[in-house]
Amino acid sequence: MNGTLKRIAVACLLMFGLLMANVTYLGAVKAEGLRNDSRNVRAFYARYNVDRGWITADNGKVTLAKTVDTGDSTYRFAREYPEGKPFAHVVGFFAPESSSGMEGAEGRYLDGSHPDMVVRRAVDLISGKPAKGASVDLTLNAEAQKIAYKDLAGTGKRGAVVAMNPKTGAILTMVSVPSYDPNPLALADKAKVNDAYRKLDKDKDKPLLNRAINLTYAPGSTFKVITAAAYLQDDASRNANTVLDAPDSLPLPNTNLSLKNYHGESCGGRATLLEALTISCNTPFAQMGMDLGYDKMKKQAAKFGIGSSLEIPLSVHPSDIGPEEDKAALAMTSIGQRSNQMTPLQMAMVAAGIANRGTVMKPYLVNKIVGPDGSEIDATRPKELDEAVSPEVADELTKMMINVVQRGTGNRAQLPGVTVAGKTGTAETEPGKPSHAWFIAFAPAEDPQVAVAVFIEAGSAGNDATGGVIAAPIAHDVMRAVLGR
Amino acid sequence: MSAAEAMPVPMTAKRRGAQLGMLAFAVLIVMGAYASVGLGINGEIPSGMLTYGLGLGGLMLAAYLVLARFAPWADPLLLPLVTLVNGLGLVMIYRIEQTGQDGANATNQLMWTALGVVMFAATVIVLKDHRILQRFTYTAGFAGLVLLVLPVLPLLGTEINGSRIWIHIGGFSIQPGEFAKLALVIFFAGYLVAKRDVLALAGRRLLFIDLPRARDLGPVLITWGVSIAVLVLEKDLGTSLLLFGAFIAMLYIATQRTSWVLIGILLFVGGAILAGQIFSHVQVRFNGWLNAESNDLYFDGVSYQLMEGLFAIGSGGILGTGLGEGHPRRIPFSFSDFIFSATGEELGLTGLMALLMIYALIVERGLRTALASRDPFSKLLAGGLSFILAWQVFIIVGGVTRLIPLTGLVTPFMSAGGSALLANWMLIALLVRMSDAARRPPPQAIQDEGLTQVMQR
User: Fold this and answer.
1) Residues in domain Penicillin binding protein A dimerisation (chain A) (predicted)?
2) Could you give the CA distance from residue B394 to residue B388 in angstroms, rounded to a whole number?
């Protein structure tokens, strides 16, 4: 019987061998796939086992997103947003299966998985402590941000406000209205979060969209600043006092249409560039664009950053002056109509570029990254994007924009004791329909500290509001908050 | 069997010191694991660690003393190995109880372990000579059948989780199938020893294999019938496969005929396919194994448990998350059928390999006992018991790791469940008793007694 017993022993050995081979296959070869299977909730649990870094503003003084240790064994750390709506689009939210805004863009620093933090993570792993992420301090000015949100939400309309430091590119305000409360989207409960998200997603006002960077709109008359920049840049002998033809009606080539001024107003037939911009005459700028041609317009626009995508680190939808068509189309493009589409951030960059004597700085939201031990891991150094216009041209444009605020359509942005430069815009979306209202500005004109773009979307409750009436007061409040007046 | 048995048995050592040392080592590992669970969960050593550790240690010391007194020549490795697996099972159940999964109860399991050790000791003390069992061959066979049938009876049996394998007596639930397993192996051993010559020799040769006579097929067909009945009436694929496999293996050991193995496999596969055609639950199980990763089957719950077990093992990776740091609660019944998967998450591939190695060693010690035994009944019984242990580990571990279709069985000594623990401790008691007999050196001559020598036996 020993012979068969030995064969049975071999059979047992074979069975254990098979089991061991299979377990090895599962634990070593297939482990990666099993670990990352979407049905394996452990990755989901792991999200809540990281002591995620905070998101702050004003050098850490204002907390925008914080992590709370609940002591729960499965979902240990909860995420909360104490400032809520005004900051929702920038800060984003940390949802069970995704994250948006800065929560997503700086996720690897916040959860500590960034290569810069690899040593510290290894120490945590060995000592058995939960992983701790780095904190992200934003460039936002919390006070200005809250005022911008309050003002914009107070109008009852949709829109966006962007303010930045023209000398560095640091974004001081980025508000989109309507907004949402990010807290219900950051619960550790997929079903509840999905419900809340679906509700927001279905809302016809699209509160989840960050209107400052995700959508583009016709810039209207604010674009005339760029047309004027191209005009001045094209010939050094031109300046604010160059006299232009300003007919009441400009026939558009190859069409039987003609271009009129806003509400059919007259600019007196002849006007200086200064006057034309101050009262926002359409015909001289349309003529300017047609004379310069598409290429020069496109080139000038590109120098302000139009047409290129940006990561701030949120990704910004590229703005565009539209494709090359006929002269008539170019005339419309030159006054910010037709397929000319800008993000509010882009228009803030235009204001900032002129404020910074022609040099456009790359906009950014992250001030610095601070490790869990309080040491600075990284800080953003301001970077030049491009020189949009020469300092001389910038000075001429500034002079004209000051005039817009002091004597023209932008008078509601005046700040006592501060020279404000600005440009209004009212863009028709469709004939007979309400218009987009715009205002771009910077202050103080002699030593610019803040450049701002305010945008109010057409068709949102109420109508016929011009940039000067509805947008300029918001820019006024934001600038005042940033300047501390 | 003639040549090997004729050889003089080499002098064996008792190795009692080594046994005590390894027993202490096993208890220490278990205590360390307890501490690790507490540290993993809340950073504190659990207050019950000393109670559990000293309780287990005390039990094993008692078992050791019983062995030293009543079976001094017993294999020194068996008890420490079983202690380690049983202890790790206790730790895992304690750990799963901490997650709040319903049904996991470490205190109950410790109580059953204590009873199991008592049963072990009682068996070793009462059963002075295991060959007595041969006299009860048919009694054992009858008892085994009755135990198998009990859950099917109305009033007595209850269906839990789709299988009718439980009976309720007083406040207790018992799985009689676990004890039937023991009784039937004893029956097989006794029966095959008596009939093996006729089963082995009669028959005719066809092509390459010796076919047995048709009338000798009787016992095989009866066992096959019983297995299929278990499969159909109790919806218990695991026990069915376990019993039939063990019978075929023992038939092979006894007769040395490969044809029995082939006939057995053909019969079982045929029966299973037929059952699959008729009974949906077999088909569902098979489909849940073949297409386990399909989303539909997962969300329908067919392969949910299996996939959650695999996710756990995969997430554990090579070193595991560490005790107390995994998510065993994700796996339904992680404390019984799927305790192996739950262990895989927290102890990793490394822990699972160690665990399989311990099982393999227990089986190896059992088979060694079979080889060293001097009479055919002991050889068959020890071989059969060792094989059934290996076979059970293969069926359940292969099932939860998706090597073979999943059939419910307990992981010996680890899964929660009193009946299985008691039965398996008795199985080990039988092996220990047989190893004591096998390793006991023949009486030595006190003086030169010439041709008249005192024989034991």
Assistant:
1) 52-136
2) 10
Q: A44 CA to chain B: closest CA distance, Å? A: 12
d(CA B333, CA B338): 6
User: Can you list the positions of beta strands (E) in A247-388?
Assistant: 249-251, 258-260, 269-272, 310-311, 315-316, 359-361, 366-370, 376-379, 384-387
Dihedral sign of CA atoms A131, A137, A143, A146 in order: negative
B-chain residues near A45 (CB < 8 A)? 327
User: How much is the pLDDT for B1?
Assistant: 42
Q: Which of A100, A176, A179, A221 is an active site residue? A: A221
- A221 given a catalytic annotation: yes
The pLDDT mean for chain B works out to 86
* DSSP symbol at B442: P
* Predicted pLDDT at B3: 46
d(CA A337, CA A251): 16
Question: Using an 8 Å Cβ cutoff, are A332 and A338 in contact?
Answer: yes
pLDDT at B457 over 60: no
Structure tokens, B105: 């109860």
Residue A30's CB is within 10 A of a number of other CB atoms, namely 16
In whole angstroms, what is the distance from residue A186 CA to residue A245 CA? 58
Domain A220-365+383-483 part of CATH 3.40.710.10 = yes
Note the pLDDT of residue A432.
63
Phi-psi region of B300 (alpha: psi -120 to 50; beta: other; left: phi over 0): alpha
Q: Quick one: A234 exposed, middle or buried, by C-beta within 10 A (0-12, 13-18, 19+)?
A: middle
pLDDT digits (tens, 9 = 90+) for A397-448: 999 999 888 888 888 888 888 999 999 888 876 666 678 889 999 989 899 9
* Helix segments in B234-303, DSSP class H: 237-255, 258-278, 280-290, 295-300
pLDDT bin (cut points 50, 70, 90) of residue B455 is low
Is A481 within 8 Å of A143 (Cβ atoms)?
Answer: yes
Residue A174 near residue A365 (C-beta atoms within 8 A): yes
Q: Among A19, A125, A127, pick the best mutation site for testing chain B contact (most B Cβ within 10 A).
A: A19
The residue ranges of every structural domain in chain B are 133-439
Query: What are residue B2's phi and psi, to 5 degrees?
Result: -75, -50
Give the helix/strand (H/E) hosting B93: helix B78-98
Q: Give Cα B168 to chain centroid, integer Å.
A: 23
Q: How far apart are CA A355 and CA A419, in angstroms?
A: 12
pLDDT higher than threshold 90 for residue B310: yes
pLDDT confidence of residue B453: 60
Binary contact (A23, B344; C-beta < 8 A): yes
* Cβ within 8 Å of residue A118, ≥6 positions away: none
Q: Where are the domains of chain A?
A: 220-365+383-483
**A93 vs A434: CA distance, rounded Å:** 33
For the ranges B10-24, B285-299, B334-348, the one whose mean pLDDT is highest: B334-348
For residue A279, the model assigns a pLDDT of 83
| CB within 8 Å: B317 and A23 | no
Q: How many CB pairs under 8 A join A and B?
A: 138
* Nearest residue to A90 (alpha-carbon basis) of A173, A151, A146, A186: A173
Instruction: Quickly count: other Cβ atoms within 10 Å of residue B368's Cβ.
Output: 20
Token pair, residue B320, equals 């595991």
* Distance separating alpha carbons of residues B397 and B85, to the nearest angstrom: 14
Restricting to B residues 271-330, those with a Cβ less than 8 Å away from any Cβ of A are 295, 298, 307, 310-311, 313-318, 327, 330
Residue closest to A313 by CA, chosen among A475, A193, A138: A138
β-pairing, A450-456 vs B157-160, is unpaired
Q: Is residue B206 classed as helix, strand or coil in its secondary structure? A: strand
